[in-house]
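Forwarding the complex inputs:
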Amino acid sequence: MVFLNSWWLYLIIGIVFAYVLLQSTVFLLKAKKRAKSLGFTKQQINKTITSSMVLSLAPSFAILIGLVALSKVFGPMIAGMRLGTLGAVTYELPAAINVINGVFNMEIGDVLTSEMVITALWVMTFGCIPPLLIIPLFFKRMRIGMENIKKKDSTWNAVMMDALFLGMISAFVGYVLAPKVIEGEDPYISVLAILVLGSSAALIIVFGILMKKLKWDWLKNYALPLSMISAMALAILFASLGVR
Amino acid sequence: MENTYQDQLHKEGRIWMLGALSLFISVPFVISMITGIWPTFVNFFPGFFATAVIFWPVTTIEVFTFTPMLGTGSSYLAFVTGNLTNMKVPAALNAQDALNVTKGTEEGDVISTLAVASSSIITTLIIIIGALLLLPLTPFLESTTLKPAFDNIIPALFGALGIVYIMKRWQVAIVPVIFMVLFFLLVPGSGGLVGIMVPVGVAISLGVARILYKKGMIK
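Prediction (whole assembly, two chains):
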């Protein structure tokens, strides 16, 4: 499949990446301007930008692991584009498998034909397209609805926002306890994952205490990324002790 | 919130998003045009159906679940750049909490947009570098020493994020957390269902929050 490494493919994917970077930069600059006019200081804005970047570092490297897997089918550029835009590896891989395995009876690691790869790419493109249609068409109306709730009862609006986040958090806390399934082994509950979850929670509490007692305000933006990265480092330590 | 500013955000957001949609579709289109290889209906449809039957409802529900959390500006960006639960939503949440801004207000929206845009830029750059240098980077990415760290990003992220919110609104958290723990422990193969369970968790926590609020037990 020569086309996966051809110059024109690099050009097309380069345009997509450039578009995403341009959109992100335009949104960043506009939000920065608006934040200033709303009274946020330059320091607050810069801290928000830096801490968000730091928080995204570890998950971004994790995406690269998905990139290694997906690039075996699509080459690095298409795989990178699929994982860096719209979806996530949890969508892209099953969609590709639905075609490669479900339609063509092949496996991800097999030597595939161009027809198989291109069909999979078409399916992946249309497989998770709804948000790009729903948001431009209906989002404004949804926001007006949200604004009305806020106008009617601002206290309920604050409770509702916390409840929304708690719903997402509860699903992921439960997910950590889901038995891991590895081919050829009995399913097992990952003690390692539970330890990491607990360590991360304990660390942010410690950081919270440090912020209060020592008046380390600078830590406020970085408590979450620091807890996360430290807990990931602890995962390496726990695993080296035989925990799994 | 000023209507004109919001209207402008929606107008520009729609243009950017529809532009992204056209670009994403044009990639397989241009590849097929240049190579002369088009998918046949017989091969495309079963693969598409098997994918869409799961992911169309999931991604549709995601819009209704995550847009209120993200706010106006960042929704138009986050759904283009993807990776919502593992990056964009936590980034928005962390930034809003660090500055003590009220979520759902214009201040909250602006800070969320700053966070999501910064997160998108760094992720895109890392993916571009990763794609270009994939060969030399593969041994590092597949290193057995680092594997436990990368395998446990979700517990590392949601442990810290979770405890803050659970402690803040423990009355609301109890029921959805217990429900989810039991669900994932007792349902075989539930590990692959987390995307579907997020909106379920949201529905439960919203229901609990509404009841407690009406009874005056939370404020």
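Chain B has a mean pLDDT of 92.
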